[in-house]
Request: fold
Amino acid sequence: MSSRSRLGRYGLRFFALGYLAFLLVMPVGMVFVRMFDAGLGDVWSAITSPDGVHAFYLTLLMVLIAVPLNTIFGIGCALLLVRTEFRGKALLNAVIDIPFAISPVVIGLSLVLVYGNFGWFGGWLADHGIQVIFSVPGMALATIFVSLPFVVREVVPVLQEIGDEQEQAARTLGASPWQTFGRVTLPAIRWGVAYGVVLSTARALGEFGAVSVVSGRITGQTETVPLFVQRAFTNFDPAGAYGASVALALIAVATLLIMNFARRKEAAT
Amino acid sequence: MSIIIDGATKRFGAFTALDNVSIEVPDGSLTALLGPSGSGKSTLLRVIAGLERPDLGEVMIGGGDVTRIPVEERGVGFVFQHYAAFKHMTVRGNIAFGLQVRKRPKAEVAARVDELIRLVHLEGFANRYPAQLSGGQRQRMALARALAVEPRVLLLDEPFGALDATVRKELREWLRRLHDEVHVTTIFVTHDQEEAMDVAEQIVVMRDGHVEQAGSPVELYEHPATEFVMGFVGEVNRRGALFIRPHDVELSHLREPGAEEAMIERIVHLGFEVRVALLLADGDRLWAQLSRTQAQELELAHGQIVYARPSRARVFDEEGEPSTAELAA
Reply:
């Protein structure tokens, strides 16, 4: 091996690791360090304060609403895109990526325009006693919106790769479309679905911009953990800001680890 | 069960895959759909299975019209070229699938699966996953899976196409014997004329979406209806309007009536068979196929001048109607 290519290899490694260190590891690490600086006692009391607990409750509620809905929608949509032909397929394909393309703040504003009390649909809903904006339904809508593409985008390539022969075989063996889906398609795409769920969960946990606009940021009522962090930070409350940040990061990492563990366990059998 | 296709037409956009195809497959027979790629043979098989719906025409299985019956209710066994194994299930799980979706009792499923595993010689592999099997084993598993539900007809789409030559020969022989045992009406698709001749009782030759000829292997070989069939089911020399099989070219050192002068360009020894490439006086080329004994008796040598005479040739008129010219003296 020539010294030049070795230099190139080490250079590339150095660059990649350095890039990650400066942009990811150091900033996130600093959050952990600052949390310990603030004192674990203060951190604990900030997180377990009524507002803190409510923020975690709301964030988990957002995940529990948005992720299952987007999983069902995502699998259905992926099947539609890969297994069927119809007019407007290219349009559907493009529309799914809108949440990736548009800034979350704009998404929040657009929801206010439609569902706000002076929006063209929100007024009608308000007359019937349904408050969307500045309350939980609007926040759920915003969370669904921003985390919508992940499952579709993870499942589509897996469906393309496995092809439809296994499904056809199941049908010739007498399986109904639902049996075919449950016994053949779903098991075959399960890891694509799992990745999509993990990514959607991470996105739903961390969503700030869109939820910030539609929630009205009412402490103890419509405040999720990212909003809580922002408020604590601007109020010079390091224990609350860093403590909640670390807790949020740990929840996201835990979902990733659970999936990787399950996958490794399955590969071993 | 007998299978009847009546006037099936199927288009994919501008491409006509099947053009008014009608065939009849007798009960309990073993039939090959033979043709080059794009001839419509796989589409026809998929129309019989219900995996494709014909634009026009009818499909009848066992005398009943099944054209509008969905695939899962047709009671067909289908074997795919690339096995279509359920990758997340064991061999046992794959074979049991059809019985499980029919909600048969567990004990019955287990007994039937054991029986099929023995039938396809996969004892000892029951708990393996498809990824841990060879191609031949996977295809035998796919066959057992298709047979488990006691299909009314068995359809195989290029079943041996993805296998290497030795395994292919073995499985062919095995399919032949299996059919003698199970007697289910079987149709298989192939582009390999030797495979079709070897295995099938009846061959349907297809080309460009229509049936060129249907008949027994002997009928097709001896009485091909068209130039295409003649060329597809065996080798053929073309000499003007005459189509001559290489084994119908007789060689001699004597100038006999009807014989032409030819120079030996090349001699290929293929064990029992000897092939001789001949250059005729007008520049045409001809293949002659001789037995080893014949070739030895003639003491053929490269560059030698011999006299070639077709003992039998076929002529096809403009409609493709054949007539055989027996040229033997």
